[in-house]
Amino acid sequence: MNKLSLLPGSSPIRVLVVDDHPNTATTLARAIAQLGTGVHVLSATSGMEALAQVKDGAADILITDMIMPEMTGLELIEKLYNHPSGRPAFSFLMTAYDVPGLKVTARRLKVKEVIVKPVQPERICQIIVQAINELNQIKPDYKERASKKPFNILIADDQADNLTLLARYLENEGYGYIKAKDGFEALEKVRGELPDLVLLDINMPNKDGFAVLEEIRSDPAIQHIPVIILTAARLDPTEMQSGLNMGADDYITKPFDRRELLARIRTKLRVKEAEDVIRNRNRELTLLPEIGKELSARLNLDELSDLVLRRTVETLGAIEGHIILLNTKNPLHKEYRISTADAVASAIQLPPLNNLLEHMKENRESILINDTRKDSRWQSPPDDLARSVVIVPMFGRFALIGLLALFHEQPGYFNVNHQLLLQAIISQAAIAVENAGLYANMAQQQQKLAAILQSAADAIILFDADGSLSMLNPAAEGLFTDYETKIGLPLAHNRGYDTLIDALEKTYTTGQPISEEISWPDQRIFNTRFTPIADGGCVAVLHDVTHFKKLEKVKNEFIATASHDLRNPLTSIKGYSQLIQSAGQLNDNQADFVKRIQHAASNMTELVENMLDLAKMDLGAEPAHEILDMTHLLWQIADEFKPQAEAKRQNLSLEKTATSSIVRGDALKLRQALRNLIGNAIKYTPDGGAVTISSENEAGLVRMNVRDTGYGMPASDLQHIFDRFYRVRNNGHDEIEGNGLGLAIVKSTIEAHGGEIHVESDGLLGKGSCFTFTLPLTQAK
Ligand code: ADP
């Protein structure tokens, strides 16, 4: 006996056995059932029963007896040939009599074999096994045909007899039907079930056929459904004409001739089928502009994906769709799925897509899989519902950013038109998805920025190009009691914001960032950084230093007081150490100690004087405003230092002098500044070197230079030497005494006079240093 081979995972083969002898039917059915679990046997003892058996699904193989009451085997085969659930792949006819002409009819109806009775069940089993094996070879295509949807026809008639009769006609032809017994019900069912055709009686209670027809034709959702009017023969022909004018596709008069009715129905259905194809195509074509419009209105990835899935699945009639977005940051790989099938069916598992992805990346083309079971590119489980798949890559500006896959349970469902349409949609979707990504990024950045601004302790204010207040962070809002009223307006003058307004104007005119100390109307002090921004506006970051300012003031006051208080005891120490010598003869040791005391006391006095000077300046002591000739001062101080220079055999010389050197300032302090510079030059120049002093004029300024040929300073120290207590270390002459305050005093003095000080030095012995400062000239009165 032939072996039964079933496709792995395929649905069982349905075999229908029909014989009016119940025993024969049962015996055969039992024998066939023994063949294995891959076979599902149905049995019937009449043609009608057989038709009822296949209501929910076609039989794959039919074995029927020929001679049966009511319906012969051939009639049954003919009925099943056009049956909505699909025709059997193979039909076998059993007959005890080889009647003439039987075989010819059987051949016309594609009966596979006419089996002459009596037959043994084993023989039948053999035939079935062979048929199943053959069937397995062709099953996918055959199944596709078999699962074609039957036509559904709505019958509207208030006469129950008519309804029954029409229903029977339709059923016998293999059509599905829906009954409605009045106009209201008819309309409701047309709208709810969208039948393929309506058979409409004119004379019905509640709403007559014309009214129903009118409503059908005026409703865009159902107006395409063909309507055949059923009418009594006595109806006035003009009325009939008006029915046709109202959009009826045909009419038929009662009592009906069955064949005529069915012929008309067939014609209308054929037309409807052709129109459906066109309508579907149109729907597909209108999808593109529609979806484009909808896509451009969305900036959310989830919404976009849902929209694309929903619209493509609906329009193409797919059972399921997937969108996979690659490289989205969080999560790394995002997947969306939509399904029109039920929960069980929606379990379509995507097989590994790496190879397909690589292929799409390389070729930038979509992929059509006509039958997942036969295509080696699709490694899905054998019971997978998806039989045809179309996969369209989504390319962004630089790379593959995702893909859309649609599925259908019929092999070969998707075609090139679908593919092209999806490609067009996806290229629009890609732009929208990328925009959504950019937007999400931007929104995220904005959130981060907002979080930073919100939590910043410093006040941050954004000014527009015209200087009006544009945005403030919470810390800045706290600076104003009524910031809301100030938004959009420039800050007003003479309200305590003048230092801020001045700095802002300076930033606008220079276009450069600046830092300024700003005082606020409430007496607070802010170190403020003004930074111009691209749109012409400016950002001001205000750091509150009021507390530090207070601390600094306390410190300065302390130093001023302490220094001041140290002066008196120091004067005593110095005085008594001098008096000691006149009090009596000192031995050498004692004389040495006294000398050391005097030296230390004068060092300390100098330190205290220096600290006191600095503290006073820090506290904001204004220098005096005397009219002074700087060249004159320079000569005086140079004169003072002559003995010191000579002691070190140094050449202290005065070079060129400025033609004009009158300034307004504090003679005492400026003398001290010159003393510090010339003193340092002599101090930090070895014996035999040279110190050169000069003054010159420069646009409204007098410049004083003190140049020496001494030890110089390494470049790395230059930025610090004006700092308090800073001294250059490890330079080979650490023994030179000093307290590191001299240059700090010079800088403060010069700056308090509106001048600037600089130093140049290359740290090489003999090259020395050059200190130079400027002061603004004034007109002598
Ligand atoms: P002091 O001389 O008391 O140490 P200053 O404030 O006057 O303090 O100078 C700071 C430091 O700068 C000095 O210790 C010295 O190292 C360096 N310096 C100042 N003037 C000169 C100079 N003319 N040549 C070389 N180094 C100098």
What does this molecule look like?
This protein has 781 residues and is an alpha/beta fold. 45% of the residues lie in helices and 20% in strands. It has a 5-stranded parallel beta sheet, with helices on both faces. A 5-stranded parallel beta sheet has the order 7-6-8-9-10, sandwiched between helices. The radius of gyration is 54 Å and the shape is elongated. The chain starts with 12 loop residues before the first strand and ends in a 5-residue tail after the last strand. It binds adenosine-5'-diphosphate.
Give a short summary of the structure.
The chain is an alpha/beta fold and 781 residues long.
Number of helices: 22
The radius of gyration over CA amounts to: 54 Å
Strand order of the largest sheet: 2-1-3-4-5
Structure ligands:
adenosine-5'-diphosphate
- Uncertain stretches of 5 or more adjacent residues: 1-9, 140-148
Mean pLDDT, rounded to whole units? 85
Largest sheet: 5 strands, parallel
Distance between the termini: 137 Å
Sequence-ordered SSE layout with sheet pairings:
Blueprint: E1 13-18, H1 22-33, E2 39-44, H2 47-53, E3 61-65, H3 73-81, E4 90-95, H4 102-108, E5 113-116, H5 121-146, E6 152-156, H6 160-172, E7 176-180, H7 183-193, E8 197-201, H8 209-218, E9 227-232, H9 237-245, E10 250-254, H10 258-296, H11 301-316, E11 320-326, E12 333-339, H12 354-363, E13 367-369, E14 388-395, E15 400-408, H13 416-455, E16 459-463, E17 469-472, H14 474-477, H15 483-486, H16 498-510, E18 514-519, E19 525-532, E20 538-544, H17 546-582, H18 588-618, E21 626-629, H19 630-647, E22 651-654, E23 662-665, H20 667-683, E24 690-698, E25 701-708, H21 715-718, H22 742-752, E26 756-761, E27 769-776
Parallel strand pairs: 1-2, 1-3, 3-4, 4-5, 6-7, 6-8, 8-9, 9-10, 22-24
Antiparallel strand pairs: 11-12, 11-15, 13-14, 14-15, 16-17, 16-20, 18-19, 19-20, 21-23, 24-25, 25-27, 26-27
This protein binds adenosine-5'-diphosphate.
Adenosine-5'-diphosphate binds at residues 676, 680-681, 684, 708, 710-713, 721, 727-728, 738-744, 769.
